[in-house]
Amino acid sequence: MRRREVVQAGLGTLLLGSGWAVRVQGASLQRDRRLVVVFLRGAVDGLSVVVPHAESAYYRARPRLALPGPNQAGGVLDLDGSFGLHPALAPLVPLWQAGSLAFVHACGSPDPGRSHFDAQDYLESGTPGIKTTPDGWLNRLLAVLPMSGSPVQAVNFGETVPRILTGRMPVASLATGRRATRRLPLDRPGVGSAFDALYSGSDALSRTYQEGRSARRELLESTGNPDETAMADNGAPASSAGFVGDASRLAGLMAHNPDVQLAFLALGGWDTHVNQARQLEKQLPPLAQGLAVLAQKLGPLYERTVILVVSEFGRTVRENGNGGTDHGHGNALWLMGGAVRGAKVYGQWPGLEESRLFEGRDLAVTTDFREVVAAVLQQHLHLERPQLAKVLPGYTPANALPGLIKV
């Protein structure tokens, strides 16, 4: 059996690289902080998330899609007199009012491409315009953080390791939904013992097997006994929507296992070329509920956590003929957590008048997404300049977002 087959068939937990067992423990301020990245794949329309309701150009460009202003039927939830939140994101308003939710508008990649594949690749590698970068910035971050000695220091929710976590450092993956705690053949004592004996050596294949077994045990112990959970639910669904359940499981995992420091989730379905209004009305509520549940269930750990919500690019300012929008450029990046100085829309707003649009059609990017990431890494995770240079090679922060992170 090959290395990949051992991990995928037997463990349900995928580990990349090797060597976590020899990593030494380190206790520091860095180790006490947490970072969660939520990727909205498909390019969510930032102009419908954080709506520039004070701009007449917004209403001219979107005669059918524009959301009414505050205090109108179906109107936006006013944030600061200039911007408003989509009404379907109402579960997040308490976090805004509590000062732990912020946005950076007109944010994105400097690369002008509108390909989903390329834009996601650049955002996850942290090197816009360079396709040869071998690893993701979250994996590089793991490499410079103090070592916990645990195989679950970085956790991905999904069947396969995403580009952002690809690299030489080991990463644990947990399936989404009910599959997360599904019993596997190796969980049977007889089968597990047989495989344990077969791969008890010190060769590379055996070490990979042992790392995977260890990671799965830690994840299952941290997320609870699935049989006991099913009995407590008494047949009721675990959650009303997949993302809400996954966010709840992640919060429980992080709250119960202090070794989990970095986490990643992705949610698709944001490529709204057609009938955008209805799609967002369906997609945004579970996203907001999931993020609110994540904040609530993290408990005291929320104060030491930053949650980044990103998407590969924004969408066109003008609506199209199908009641949707097309691939654009600038977007809104979200930040949550007790470490965030929230209740503010950060960034330089370029406006939506035609002369201010990128290539005459899109919201311009005035803040490189790496500026936000750099602020989080330096001020929240306390990376030094040499460490930051390893995570975001070739990028020099402009320190353009003062006060975004509490220090």
Automatic annotation (TrEMBL):
It comes from the Bacteria. It holds the Pfam family DUF1501. This is DUF1501 domain-containing protein. The lineage of its organism: Bacteria, Bacillati, Cyanobacteriota, Cyanophyceae, Gloeobacterales.
